[in-house]
Batch of 4 targets.
Target 1
Amino acid sequence: MKKFIYIIAALIGLTGCIDNDLPYPVVVPHIISLDAVGAESVDIDYDECTVTIVFPETTDLRKISITSYEIDEEIAVPSIDIIGEHDLSSPLRFNIRTYDDYAWKIVGVRTVQRYFTVEGQIGSSVIDPANCRAIAMVGKNADVSNIKVTSLKLGPKGLSTYSVDYTSMRDFTHGISVDVTAFDLTETWRLFVEITDASVEITNVNPWAHEAYLTSIGTAGVENGFKYRLKGDSEWIEVSESDITSDGGTFVAHIKGLEQDTVYEAVAFSGADQSAVVEFMTETAVKIPNGSFEYTSKVAGTNYYKFYDPACGIEDCMEMFWGSGNGEGSEGVNGSANLGIVITYVDTEEKVDGKQSVRAQTSQLAGMLAAGNLFTGQFAGLVGTSGGKVNFGRPWTSRPSALKLYCKYSTGNIDIINSTPPGVTLTKSDYDRAQIKIALGTWDYKKYGGTPESPVHINTTDASTFVDFTTDASTIADGNLIIHNDGYHMNGADKVISETGEWTEYIIPLYYHSMDKHPTHIVISCASSQFGDYFTGCSSSKLWIDAVELLY
């Protein structure tokens, strides 16, 4: 979630007597971490000043134990004792005081799985928790006065009681009311069964580069399936049952092994009925520009490189796609190189593909760490000698399944510790580690502070500007690789012990938050020190990167 801190400094001239009405500075506090017993996830929205805690459906929101929290301003004092037991069946509202009061709230959310299915159902049921209503559809020949309910769950599993047993429900001519009680709270639900003329229909087609997801409605309880073919072919290919999932009378097929940029046809069938033929075209498997970094050129008047070559004659390598903290000097924005610290190099000795690779190399100036980096986007300027600003991202619309690249890593013990993220403790006996992140998203530069080309703006001196792609609302997909001196972590999985000091192939799977949305931009970020944004790491860490490509 994007976080903003607005700081106004008041400079007061001192002449003669000093009045006692000096304005207070504006210090906006933020809750930067919070944990509660049983929480599945915690999301902090700095724009709305809201902490949302998601719990399993069996949780009693009236008795929630908050075990820890952290506020980013030392002078901040909450108006209540946050740690302890609270009733989150309604939002918990309070103020945080610095020089003014700032209203915050903590919201508890219980994710209850609900369903209502009937025999001969067509399509998925409509479950409307806000209005306590559920609707199932049946074919035009069904008798709504004699319907068999096959499943019903409207409250927390094992804790809910129902005023009517679903096995006794039959006549839905005017709907059926049922009281559902859990945690001493009763909701009155209305259940309806309605007639539809549809028998089988493909309702959604979601084509990717080498696969497609087809959704259809059909009649539950009969044979349902899909067929597809290249447009122009005469023979249909039936989708395997193992690649079809169902929810009542809604069916989803996962078709694999397709060709990119190709037109296919598909039909769905339900019993003896067949849908109309639909056409779809697969996406293009777009390649990462200059993924082996063969095309580089020196910044004018300097001895360091930019990671494109206007004279190379290859369209997508003639303009900036990759950037680094070096900056572009006279050709763009000053970076670390203008302070005499080059942190990203071209290396012709170490490479996997072609004539060279990129070496991101952590350094330091007067005890201030500067992590070597390479990223899609553009360096946006220095913040004095204490940090830098980056606009991350490049325009992108295709949906890959993974990022593949080769890396080699050399590191040592952390020798500079400035700060760490909340919940992370490091000492100088710990080894540094490298980090590679990829994200696809629909980031609006007006909200995220960047530019239309590179929308996500990060200021390394202001942790409130950092974006967590695993929880960020505009992120569609993300992947993460941490490289240690003796192994690596992939997407939060257990550490794999391996030799990382030699060239190693890594494939980072992308976790999609949404399977239907299309991105507008891609972020790839490589850093020789994971906590370089916090100016913490080993000042001699080196990360080599080569042969970067997207898999589809």
Note: The two ends are 28 Å apart (CA to CA).
Target 2
Amino acid sequence: MEMMETQKELKSLNCRENDGMESPNSIEQACKENNHAYVKQCLDAMESDDIKREAFLNIINYYENELAQFPVGYVVLFIEWLLKSRDFDEAGKYIEKLSGMDIVKERISEHIYEYVIKPDEPEYEKRFNRNLAILKENGVLFSKQAFDFQSIRKKITTIRKLQSHSEENNMPELHKTSFLFVDLIDMKLIQRILGAGNLLYLIYDDIRKFYYMLLFEDMLSIKKNIEANASDEMDNVIFFAGRDKDCISEFFDSRLTRTPEYVVVLPEHNEYQGLMDKIRGQREEGFLAAKKKIKAYCKNRGHKYYQNLFSKNPEHIKILMVTTRGSTLNKHISKSWHSAFTALGYTVKLLIENEHYERIQNSYIAEIMCSFRPDMVFHINVAVNSIFDEKEIKNSLLWIMRYRDYNEISFGDFEYQGENMFYLPLFPDLTSALRKTNVPENRIYHSVEGVDINLFSKAGEIDEKYACDIVSVNNAVGSDLFRLNRMVEKIEVDELKEIMREVYTLVQEMAMNDEFMSEKEFMILIYDKNRSRGFEVNEQGRKFFEVFYQYIINAFYRRRVIDWIIDSNITENIKVWGSSWSNIDKFKKYHMGTAEYGKELSGIYGSSKISLCDTWGWNTHERNYEILASGGFPLVRSVTAEENERMGSISNYFIEDEEIVLFDDKDDLLNKVQYYLDHPEERERIAENGRNVVINNLSNMAIAGNTMDFISNYYSKRGRVRGK
């Protein structure tokens, strides 16, 4: 009955005449008599915008207060007038009131198109297509519908960022978790969620809300969260467009996707909460069943089992390799280890995240273990107790834990679980931390990261598109402000944010004067500033600020290195590669874009006369070995005695000035740049000597072979074996 009345009202409001009816004494009387044609004639005759607005509001109030009806037809008419008057904000409020009335949606869409889109149609079409392309090209849009600009006349029923439920107030203040929202069009809230390092699923049950996002929002504002492999963190966003539960279920059927921990929906969308609960339950059941099977197949594995296993040829040994943390670099490292173990003859399976929204879940690891039945599991940065709680699994299987990133690991991860666990720390300080937690010496094997010499190899000729005198490859320079903002977004206390900005400014000012604060000095400053405001820095906070230090000191120091070379006028033939160089005007003409890991990077290194290796505080980065393997000449920053103790030194593996060249400071850097550009034969001799060291001792196969020898010796001798 209500829909029939609405249809009659809409139809009569389209009439232009009073159809011969006697004119009522007032608009109010006409409303009471449902004489809509007369009301419309009165409204059309009003020339003053203020009077007409007041009349519309009076009519709407009369129907709502006196007749207890919602005057849909008059509201539609009011919306049309507001749009025509360019009062989009007020129009949006009334459009939202009609959001549940399908009968008027097409008409509202036509009005929005006519008065909002059409006057600036080329700009709207450009934005629509650009936004759609960003989502499609990066594989973050899941829908079985087609989207095109020509269909917008019937697909847009909102024009403002008005949410009918209060997500802003109800959303938990959480970091590094996952959320699902339905029909969310508040871009500020979306940015806030992503800025806190969260994974965000956006379902557009009402397809018109998705069209709103394409037309009125700018996906460039969250492009870094959309782009594949753009971030090593979790802050990605996935879009589902259309009321298609099968499409959503198919996406989450993959064990590599993460089910949202928080579902924020209106009551009418509770079905999505039910869908996520069902998927989560199925995964938990699968995980429990998989763990039961794993316990059964590895039940009797112990020292004798592995002693016998290592007496066999490598093809009889199965290794499951797992990437971790969604880190692009760690994916490359995992692939390198996989390549090495495969080349050595082992049977290897690699679990890897092929899409940037994927995460290696514990349930997925368990599922693959059931089918692959590995003898050992190789994992980077994550301890076995982060995967399984069951003692039978932790103590029976052989686990190899490669620890690369100190700041990603808690001391609880170092807990010694059983005799079949082996630890591969990358840095001396990680080795020390393991010893302090009573991990036996004969389970610790310290080594640098090996180079995949199939990816990084010396080419027969110089590639002219990469050729230059000086090259620097890094994503640090120009990223300092972005890094600061990303770190600040993770902090809720304004005073702590202020501390970070103060310290950032101080470190920047010092760096521009060629004064570089040590990490120890930086942390003392952080502690002092926190105490002065009544805060204490705990273990988690210490790691957070250490990461912050590395981000900004590398951005500033590596910037100054290039500044020194440019200002010296030694050469203009400089090329820089990475994501952020062009944020600094001085470097734009040298910026070549980003380089693809592997063959392209190898070509850059091999075609450049000098490759700068200027990472602050650490000079055993695998990049140095990749340069040498490619036939390049790395000029490497030296480390202090304290840095050597913590992170190691490249001098432990190469003879200085025979197989590697180091620089200490600005003057030493410029002198050596000039010298080795002027002495190509000596430069090439040292580069070749260093290349031989890498091929013989530091290839991924050499490191992997030494690792397996270390483990094999433990089982054959059961003695006290030291790592290199």
Note: Residues 539-568 form the longest helix (30 residues).
Target 3
Amino acid sequence: MKRINVGLRFCLCVLSALLLSAGWFNLHLPWLVLVGFVPMLLLMRDIIAENGKRGGAKFFGYSYLMFVLWNLITTWWVYFASPAGVFMAVLASSLLMALTMRIVYALWKRGGEKVGLIAFVSCYVAFEYLFMNSEIAWPWLVLGNSFANDVMFVQWYEFTGHLGGSAWILIINALLYKMLTVKLKKERMKLPLALSTTLLIFVPIILSVIRYYTYTEKENPQNVVVIQPNIDPWGEKFDENTFGSQIENILDIATTYGNAETDYFVAPETALNGTIQEDFMQGNSSLLAVRKFMHDYPKSKFVIGATTFKVYYHKHGDKAYDGSSITETAREIGENDHYDIYNVSMQVDSGQYVQIYRKSKLVPGAEILPYIRIFGFLSDLMTDLGGMSGSHGCQEHPTAFTNDVSGVKVGVPVCYESAFGEHCGGFVEDGAQMIFVITNDGWWRDTPGYRQHCSFSRLRAVETRRSIARSANTGISCIINQRGDVVESLGWWERGGIAATINANDKVTFYSKYGDYIARMCGVVSAILILMQIVSGIRRRMGKNEDIQ
């Protein structure tokens, strides 16, 4: 094949970035992602064929350029929440993506094209999994997310999750690359290659469409009211002078749309104002207002977001006086006392008992200083969307809220957590029969960011087969059925509510039970490939030494 010149190489990088970006906008063009990596695979093949001394560095540079472009096109809106966040979301994540492709390049060069293509699939999926489970997680550009606006074609995510979707996309890219190189070399197309590629593309899609039209929800109706208060996060939201009017606004919407048959009211992230001490909740005026409101709705529960804190009094070593452990995220108060701050969802009724879930997946740079044991000295530089500094505390595993009236359990991921498939499956493992997503999303202004975030909840509905009620402060609030369809919604910067009936489901999907097993398998394959090449390299060196002797 003819060598690719420098200008064309840059064009291939831009083409890959554009093709990969198509799935993150509501253009109904996720199919372009199926060929998104083909230009980069052609580029990798060409640089390897050059057999130059700095081929790996060249390919890394081109890869980094492509990933930066892809990240910028799809997530530029992070700038509105935090200019520094763009560095993490674009430059840092692109670097990790490019390093992954550099590993693929090395395995391809040492082991040949077949090994390289297997490594391309396994290493990239393993990277997505490791990245999502790190303290610098940025799950936005997981390849499987590209079908979030076209869920009819990925109903099989209930078995594989979105990382299984990533594996499918990468395998098809690899097979289409092989077919293209056969054409470019003017060779005869082999039937097994053409047939396997065709089947792998169309069989999952056909089965998915059949599943979409034949899926029926088990009848277990729950009446919910989703509240969208539309409070400006950059101004009114954190103004103490407006705290009273904000909760009045929320309860006014609840009154308008609720009735005696309402089972749940759902309000956004941090909708309860102020910072509530978990051991003395009865002193918070916003919480007292909600409890008073709930006296008129004895069968209902009010699910709402808040910021809470827990105090560890009189530290002795790593323990408080009551024996509780001082966490690594705890901040000092005076000489001996410490406290942790949490972004929580809570379930409230007219009684004194409040169920709390502490957000587990924290936003790097905004809610958590990654790897605080190493970088704790940088805590003063933290950028926090709520105006606070330092790392939030969290809980280790998702837990669901139980309705003592109906027995129904509901999982309530907070904001960013709704982008993590395996994590949301954890609520189902804990018994959740419905999922309520509470978020703000106003930080990003009227950009693709809030629309992308909303679309990810459609994938969670498919993966878990749970109905989803989504309450977003400034939109998009919506109701999503168990097929992933948005059946009712409130748009951007609208005040209002949605009264709807959704079904609770107690059947646990394969994915909810086993999580990202495909990604873990890819991690094992990647480790084996890397180990094999290391061993092979050692043997070659030993052979050369024997020849010299």
Note: The radius of gyration is 25 Å.
Target 4
Amino acid sequence: MRKDHVPLIVAALALALLPFVLDVCGLPLRSAIDVVVFAIACMGLNVLVGNTGLVSFGHGAWFGLGAYAAALSQRHWFPGDLILPTLFAMLFTAVTALLSGALILRRRGVYFSLLTLALTALLFAIGYRWTEFTGGESGLGGVTRATVLGVDLEGDWTYYWAVAAIGMAVCYLLWRFHRSPVGSVLVAVRENEERARFVGYPTNRYKLVAFVLSATVVAVAGTLSVFNHRFASAEPLSVAFSGELIAMVVIGGMRSFLGPALGALFFILFREFLSIWTPHWLFWFGLLFVGFIVFSPTGLVGVAGALIAPFRPRVIEAAAMAGRTVVEGVALPPVYRRAAASEAPVLVGDGLVKRFGGIHAVDGVALTVKDRTLHALIGPNGAGKTTAFNLVCGLFPPDSGTITLEGRSIAGLKPESITSAGVGRSFQITNLFAGLTAEENLRLAVQARTPNALRCGPPPRRWPMSPPRRPSSLRSSGSPASNGPRPPRSPTAASGCSIWGSRSRPVRASCCSTSRSPGLPWPSGRVSGRWSKPSPPRFRSCSSSTTSTAYSRSPTT
């Protein structure tokens, strides 16, 4: 049994034992169904919150939308059926999430959260006031369970096992999704979206995939809920219900695969038992939620890990560089090779201008970079060196001027498009994506330049342009194994940009904003222009490791 299959085995055992354990606790079978339904909803929400880092305050809207879509379609179009209303609810919710997500994801941070909050408030007003269509405050009854494939789902026991089977299928699909190339990109977006863009990923597209998938999974939970209670209402569309979903995810552990499902179980037990003693049980649940945020942000999974930690054997590892080995005779991959150097300029910028209000950060800068050459951009602090790099790499569009790469204009393109064209950007403080293993960090850079970057299945054993065996590539680089600890945040001095190949082009050149490093010649090429603030020639330098890191991509090294 592989270690990464453990969550699936735990989920299967939990689904098999759940109704019997709750029966011992004195809870009815429908409470067990509610646990599975809320677990599906929370795991769907966690695709967005825990894996992508987007906090949605209105995900209950998709739960209620799926419930209403299933109930209304069964009443008007598919009477006596269960499968077709469920499929219709999934499709309707996915299309609605695609359209609304394309608009909402234009904003980030708190503005994204507020837009999701506004969406659920809008849908709640429609569901509560459109009495003729949704039933209003009285709700929409008349929902029936049907016979599916000869199995009568009217009995609660039969329906529970059907819901458990669907829950297990959702769990498996999400497990595959999180381990897929798309799943690793979403973790990179959560850790550092800007870096992910400069690796070559269109992050808005990936976030939209996560948004639609999350909404669809939550809608499946809403559909199962409406057939469980045979009733649809506007309550799931309320802001309070969305807050409860967020609380379940946080209390369970949003950085754990099964943590949200544990939070759903905790919520149902807390509600059922505490509501016997006080009608204000939600007040105490809110206090408990605040307590978890303050004292245990990792949720119940983190608490369990802290309790078990003293009983686990401690593994003391040497420093990462201590296990580094040098492998002789490793040839440069053919995709990075070029038969002969070209004398023609590779990257040309002319008349670049960038203003921020009344500040002229860059004014009339020109630069020329030839093939297989090293360049340095030298100037005092605040002269506009970093802004010039930002213009070349696409972080800012130039107000005027031209930037061409091998004759193709790249001025004003997005960073991921410029990266795909062949311009790579490194930063002054470099670090790995801490939420990914060393192998996943390496794979992330390789898969950005392959057609499989949007693959939702498991990663292939061999990527194009990659070495034949992944463990050997890790050994040659001195990196820890894929199942080892996460890489630490180890900033190193680095800045500048490098010109490198796309899928069909080899490496070109590299450049760095630095003064002359010991043992390196003065930069060649042409860099001219007028800076915004003339001052004495005090050079801002970066370490020699910057130049060697950027230049190591060149075939001549």
Note: DSSP finds 19 helices and 13 strands in the chain.
